[in-house]
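Input/output pair, single chain:
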Amino acid sequence: MVQASTTEEQKIWENWIQSRDSEAGNLLVKKYMPLVNYHVQRISVTLPKNVSRDDLRSLGMVGLYDALEKFDPYRDLKFDTYASFRVRGAILDGLRKEDWLPRGTRDKAKKIEATIERLEQKFMRNVKVSEIASELNISEDEVYTTINEYYFANFVSIDERPSDKEDNENHSFHLKDERAQDPQDKIVKEENIQELTRIISQLNENEQLVLSLFYKEELTLTEIGQVLNLSTSRISQIHSKALFKLRQTLQNAMNKVNK
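Output:
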């Protein structure tokens, strides 16, 4: 990574903005490459092993190049912040364009969901992961991993945005004052936060700590492993189990509300 003083960095930016100097562009790419690696690490946590990190990194680089081309240094916005949106967006857009979740994983996820529903109807209670695993003759880790991958796949598919090339003449648009907070939205948000806090408090200490370090402190799984003196794969397992428990509890709560 290139280390440069503030003055040197300003000169690099000036050369890039004024003349699109290729050397300045290369220096900026090297400087912000760790930003791409950071988002690759975070997004790849819940992706199947068949999704190459190199492919994600390539998508992230597209976002970084796009950020360098479109960044306006005269706006009151740091490049790191602007580039983060572009890099993350480019990776997610790339994932949306391909069905990266293997058919076998989708089929397995559907079997797990059907098994959960069948066992809950049978026992009239929330079922344990061990019971699901036993019913399907697979490991508990396989249950956690499969469901997390499946949920992330659905999230990526649902979070579609209309393409710039689409005909927007038949669509209506409105502007919302983002500074104004709707009272009802505020109440719902506060209730959701309280419910999520309650659910998180039911997780064990390690699971709560991993979620806090990952989502609040924004450490990578490897960094969390160094803090807790555990392997990255072990931290990944704890993270997956925590997310599975949260999703299952939230889903059960939603089902009760909808009944």
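Residues 158-179 have pLDDT under 50 and may be disordered. The domain at 6-96 is CATH 1.10.1740.10 (Rna Polymerase Sigma Factor; Chain: A).
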